[in-house]
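P.,

For your records, the input lines for the assembly:
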Amino acid sequence: MRQLPVIVSRELGSYFATPLAYIFILIFLVLSGLFTFYLGGFYERGQADLSAFFDFHPWLYLFLIPALAMRLWAEERKSGSIELLMTLPITRFEVVTGKFLAAWLFAGMSLLLTFPMVLTVNYLGEPDNGIIVAAYLGSWLLAGAFLAIGSCMSALAKNQVIAFILTVTACFLFIVSGLPMVLDAFNWAPQWLIDAVASLSFPVRFSSLGKGIIDVRDVLYFLSLIVAWLAATAVVIDLKKAV
Amino acid sequence: MDRSMIELMNLTKVFATRRVVNDLSFSVQPGEVLGFLGPNGAGKSTTMKMLTGFLEPDSGTARIMGYDIRTQTRKVQQLMGYLAEGAPCYGDMSVRGFLTFIAEIRGFRKAACQQRLNEVVERLELEPVLDQSIDTLSKGFRRRVGLAQAIIHDPKVLILDEPTDGLDPNQKYQVRQLIRGLSKDKIVIISTHILEEVTAVCTRAVIISEGKLVADGTPLELESRSRYHQAVTLVTGTPLDEAALLALPGVSGLEQNPLEHSLTLLAEPGAVIYPQISALVSERGWKIREMDVERGRLDDVFRSLTRGDSL
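Structure tokens returned:
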């Protein structure tokens, strides 16, 4: 466990060693602003809350998070540095978790940089800041779940573009699994299966956090999803090292 | 169980249906610099990847200083420095950042970490590029960074996969000097297909072909298995009496080298033919520009062992 911070700080540093970090943050901030004010109708709604901002996060993350996650393992494998990393005296757990945590912290940092939204809404009205904090937490958990899926897909593919497409697809399935068009396709299935599919949906879980309700079950849902996908990442890396 | 050596025990790795490493067993003693030879695809890198814990053997195992590579991988990796083929590293990091990262992973913190860094930087002369990103370095410097990374914790066991591949002669010389300068109680395994390297740095050579051990001995012993062992080469401008040379006791054959205007006389196994030839030359009054006795040609032994030709 002592080596975990070493891995996290190296990974985090590597984001800022290339333009990647700055471009990501810039695009994230611009897009989240556009979505809030134009698609979300922040002013038109006339309400002192940030739901216009948070409601689009699942869709924003759908393309931005896979771009962040695709390099996690694909790049290590392509440059051969995976051989260096895996022959250092560290555990699989430390490597997989360390890489993920760095990406998650980076996503959290980008999220915190949206603080002008909070200032704006506080300037314009009197929002419930407790709800906003819960929504931020929910958004961060959502980003973590997307990243964990992306980590696994990146471990599967040597090519970053393939990793990106696989991640977008997998995340998309998690987003739409609560929508009627998917659930209707399951109308032949028993009710418990439909409920199970619906309960996997990111937006359903996310919107309850967005309303300020921190339900332990929702938090556990995201955390267990992260753990499961990271475990899958470790397995995939062990299986595919040789290739 | 010996706590000071490396023992490979029936080490085997199968890719698809091909046995890339096939029942490989040998051991390496402390102080030995082992040249690990074989043609491309013979299983050298795969063997090294198993020893360093990157790949898991399909059967058999190896013990490094008494630790099993399958069950005590972490222990093994602590003892070991490894330079993988092509010296992979994190190209976007600076040399300082990268080496500090490796030292920290190896458990050195603060002052100890700084001290280890200073030591390898001095040893590999990395000072001028310390704050450059690794991507911008020349091949020679990159390789030195790879070596620095491998020796930063002063490991008992050093495994180097083609450390001089792609370097210019000066850089090769530097790397060899470095390997020779390592302290004497270490075990060093170097894979290579550059045979001059073996005579230059190794105390022992192991040749594998198609995943199997085909020869094991000191470079001298291996050279003596060459058909050129004790062969005598005469460089001359004028034609010589070949029949008289062939008739000398111990001479088994003769090869013409028209390009160099020279003749090579082969010796029967175990025979020494230099004195007879020298006597004949002075008796006939031949004008000889050069006369060499060969120790044997390692590349010749290598070729015949790895292609299955007779010696």
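Two observations worth noting. The CA atoms of residues 86 and 92 of chain A lie 8 Å apart. The radius of gyration of chain A is 19 Å.

Regards
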